[in-house]
Structures are given as C-alpha cells and as structure tokens.
Amino acid sequence: MRENFNRQLETLNREMTEMGALCENAIESAAKALLYHDEKSAKETMVVEEEINQAERDIESLCLKLLLKQQPVAADLRMVSSALKMITDMERIGDQAADIAGIVRHVEFDEDYDNDYIKKMAKGVSKMVTESVDAFVERSLDMARDVIRRDDEIDDWFKKACGDLAGYIGTNPAKASLALDLMMTAKYLERIGDHAVNVAGWVEFSITGAHNYSAHEAAN
Known about the structure:
By secondary structure, this protein is mainly alpha-helical. It has helices at residues 2-35, 39-69, 74-103, 116-138, 141-171, 176-208.
C-alpha cells in the first residue's frame, strides 16, 4: 500500500509542478499582452487560465483520493492538505493574470511610457510562484522562506510604480486612463506576489507543521 501511495505522491508533485508552470506562463503572457499591447498574448492568457482551472480540479481530486483511501500518516497528511491549500492560491493567480490580460482590450497604449517597475514586478512574482512550487516538490524550507522574504521587494516596487504613475498623470492628464489601468495591473501583480507567499507559507507548514506566516488579506 505504501508503494502505491508513494507513486501517487510522485504524481501529485508532477501535477503541482505543471500547474506552477502554467501560472508562470499566464503571468508572462499577461504582462506581454499589456506592456506590448499584444492581443495574441492576451488570448493565450485566457486559454492558460482555463488550463489552470482544470489543473486545480485534477489535483483536488487526486488529493481527496489520497486522503480518503490511503490513510496517510501525519507528515503525509500535512503534505496533501497543504497541496489543497496551495492550488486555491494558484488558481487565483491564474484569475489575476487573466484580469491583467483583460485590461488590454481598453487600455490606451503609450509607447513613450517606461513601465520599468511593472516589468520588474511581473518578472519577480513569476519567479516567486515557480520557486514556491519548487520548494514544495523539493521539500526545501530555505527556498520557501526566501519566497516569503522577497514579498517586501514586490511591495516596494508596487509603491514605486504607483508613485511613478501618479507623477505621469500630473504631467500627462490626457493619459490618466492609461495610468489607472497600469496601477490596476500593478495591484494585480502585487496580489499575485501575495498568493506566492501564501503558497510558500503552506510549504513551510507541510515541512515543519507550523504555519508562522500570516497571509495578506489582499490575496484572499
């Protein structure tokens, strides 16, 4: 029975990694859609978001089978229950990537505006999502805690992006609509970072049995 359980855990790890990769793809395609006014990337984001939703359903089904049929010991129980919590945050990451892509349909694109902070945020949260899932698969407490620490960097970029965009509105009042869309995008990216931290927090719980990090309410 234990051999069968281990095989199913391997399947769980593989499917979690694949879902994490889908989240990374969704973030990258959504950022590309907005920053370069790329309709194709916007549509790709919507497709990936549906794939993330399906991955959540598949993993949830597998976790429930493990819990109901295999009677896991305490450490395995923490791992499976943590995966159930993690996929909820990962599904929300897909939703927020789709929200970013949706902005492309009405944004007033300006090639002269430098979106440097938003680019940094997109790259940063994408890496956080990937590494939080890798931490789960590799059982790496150090990696999970590093993701949690990097949330402060994302928050700092978010504040700088909003400050920069407020200044942009002051000098380009006709572009206020664009600036507000970009502010909303920055907020979505900040929330994605929060979700990545939530995932990392559940990784910590799965390893140690303690959930010391309180997730941001903004990510719920």
